[in-house]
TrEMBL record:
This is ABC transporter permease. One of its GO terms (molecular function) is ABC-type transporter activity. Keywords: Membrane, Transmembrane, Transmembrane helix. The chain crosses the membrane at residues 20-38, 120-140, 160-179, 186-205, 237-256. The keyword Transmembrane applies. GO terms for cellular component: plasma membrane. It comes from Actinomadura darangshiensis.
Length: 262
């Protein structure tokens, strides 16, 4: 097995090609299905949504963008992106360390940092595939579902943030596993649990008079700037990207120095 250069990146992509494809297809199809419901959604139906759920974007169907910011990009799709990052990041280092395969990998001429970063790059490629699948689904259903008021640039901006959100939770899971040596299941559980917790915080904070807490969650930077309506929010995208970089850098720093023999 050769692991020089970018071979670990391409091998990881090849080994995970089916997993990445399934995640992308499932996320894209779910987004398409719920976006297609827009013409059938009535004001009466949305009036029955509890007021406590308004923080999740479920209180506005007056425009296509308002609807999409609710059940599609405000609820279902970001949670799938979170779970993708948690599941894939937990496999990056933790799965091989738990099975003992990591020692075999590191016996080849590849450093710890390169191994981690190339595998994380493959995770990032999977996140891009998910974002691309969702964008393609939105453009495909746009005219038929009366979503024409949302421009292609708005969809591209929102799916960019979706990709960055998946990347952030992937960085968290990868960094956590690399830094601690926890099992794959534990890394996934901690990352996914934290993701759901901050998702709930972002949605419910305004209802408890603590709207400022939203700025502490990645979901605010993912959708708070309403990219479907306003296009790319450079500052928000930069926050998500910078947080991912910090997490993966911290995990790499610790992984390089950690005793893997314990």
């Amino acid at each position: 097995m050769t692991t020089n250069g970018g071979a670990m990146f391409t091998k990881t992509l090849y080994d995970n090609r089916r997993i990445f494809t399934v995640w992308a297809l499932a996320t894209g199809l779910l987004a398409l299905m719920y976006a297609a419901f827009y013409p059938q959604v009535s004001a009466d139906a949305m009036a029955s949504v509890p007021e406590s759920m308004s923080g999740f974007g479920l209180d506005d169907t007056s425009t296509a963008a308002g609807y999409l910011q609710g059940p599609v990009f405000g609820l279902l799709v970001p949670l799938l992106a979170t779970f993708y990052g948690a599941a894939t990041g937990a496999r990056t280092i933790s799965a091989d360390e738990e099975s003992g395969y990591l020692d075999l990998l590191l016996a080849h001429p590849i450093g710890r940092a390169r191994l981690l970063l190339q595998r994380f790059a493959a995770l990032a490629a999977g996140a891009l595939l998910i974002g691309g699948a969702v964008l393609a689904a939105m453009l495909a259903v746009r005219d038929g579902a009366d979503l024409g008021s949302v421009g292609a640039g708005g969809f591209a901006a929102q799916t960019l943030n979706l990709t960055l959100l998946a990347l952030l939770f992937g960085a968290l899971a990868t960094g956590l596993g690399a830094a601690t040596g926890l099992t794959r299941a534990t890394v996934f559980g901690v990352t996914a649990g934290l993701g759901v917790a901050v998702f709930a915080l972002n949605g419910f904070a305004p209802q408890i008079g603590a709207g400022g807490l939203r700025y502490l969650t990645p979901f605010h930077y993912y959708i708070g700037g309403e990219p479907l309506k306003n296009g790319v929010q450079v500052a928000d995208a930069a926050v998500l990207a910078a947080a991912s970089a910090v997490l993966i850098a911290a995990g790499t720093w610790r992984f390089v120095r950690r005793d893997l023999g314990r």
